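Researcher: Here's a chain I'd like modeled. Treat it as a single chain, no partners, no ligands.
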Amino acid sequence: MKKKHNIGLIVQGGSLRSVFSAGVLDAFNILQFNPFDYYAGVSGGAMSLSYFLSGQDRTLLTILKELSHDDQFINIKNVFSEEGFVNLEYLEKFTQDKYPLDVKSAMNNLKGKTFEIVATDMANGNPVYLQPTMRKWLLYLRASATLPFFSRGVCNVNGRQLMDGGWSDAIPVKRGIKKGAKKIVVIRTLPKNHKEDWSYFGVFGGFWHRNNPKLSKRFSEDYLYYNNVVEFLDKKHDGIDIYQLAPEKYLKTTSYASTLEKIEDDYRLGLETGMHFVSENRALFE
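Model: Modeled as a single isolated chain. Structure tokens:
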């Protein structure tokens, strides 16, 4: 019999913008607010959730501050290199050498609960929901963040070539509902009213993978998939309560560029957003 979940926590990706999510989740930890039994994260959102589940407050803030000006992680000169513009292998080595994820604590805190890291199957463009283990947690995080043309193009996991989950299920709220969640908190790194438009990157990806029609469509119509889930979030659904935590305006930090001051500001905004949410809504989750 499949386990049914009641309360879900979904965290959108956003690369450096995930510092906002880190602030929200640190507030949850500080206030001991964790009524959730289902978690799902995409790319940077999955990394934020990982440090939340391990109880390592402020760790992701520190990591993002250091990486924001580290040209071994982000370097425009490496766009056409083997590692790409964003070096995920360096990220993994950097974090494990200096700020290792306490996987054992995270696994202990997940007992009786479910955490899914979202990636995209390069074979068909469909989402893949990976449940981390002691041995494969870091591998799954890398798979969820692998961006074709920006980082090393694919990540091999269990015989499948995977890439960033944002291309197939950027905000996996429908997945949470499918898993049985009736109350879902969604942390977003873009304003609630943000809608995507077509992009040169999506057009290029669609053309590059033109021999794989399903994957090509994921790239060329990525903005339609995103806008569809945004519209879903804004609607009322019988028996389902969705709570969105998102910045009212665009964050000062962008996906791959920021300053230490901007990162601190966006983190504090997340911290304040999380604290306000808990103070106003804790009773609804008890």
